Amino acid sequence: MKRNQLRRFTYAERVVHWVVGLSFLLLLFTGLAFSYPSLFWITELVGGGPAARVIHPVAGIVFSVGLVFMFFLWVKDMFFGKADVDWIKAIRAYASHDRAKVPPTGKYNAGQKSFFWVQAVLGVVLLLTGIPLWFPGGFGGGPFGGGFLATMRFLHYLSTLGGGLFLIIHVYLGTVAYPGTLGGMLWGTVSRGWARLHHPLWAKEKTGA
Length: 209
Hints:
Number of helices: 9
CATH topology: Fumarate Reductase Cytochrome B subunit
CATH architecture: Up-down Bundle
Shape: elongated
Number of domains: 1
Radius of gyration: 20 Å
Number of strands: 2
Strand order of the largest sheet: 1-2
């Protein structure tokens, strides 16, 4: 690691992050293909409709398992404190890059913590609603009712759209809005300048200065 770099993510954290992210993308696009006939052509990218119907739930399992690992890897750093409340109050300044008005943060700011918890909740909803859609015939006690399946399908759809929206915001913030952020998840390191600019308390903890 170069002297002007700080270790931000371990190899395990990066692998889990990309497993969760890429499996969710696969779920998102195949799910949209099933929901909108005009987008059904997307299934051709994975071998056609029958293949997509097999791949979708399997990707759901990969996503769910990855989400469990991600949760336990990061949850210790994701609890809110007073500093996070102050950061939320200054979110307009953060969005407009008015650094002087943004309170210093540790390794993660309140926006990143919020994203973590929202995605965790959406992941649970996607799993719980996806299981009955995968096995509409039930589990031995008779098939699920049509009304129940319709509700599960609706909640599954809303959770997918919510997850997709948050993913777009996440990617935008990590690439276009705040350059240098993506490198941390690709290579595991960020520059000291980036750390001091975006997470000064964490940078001080890592460098002692």
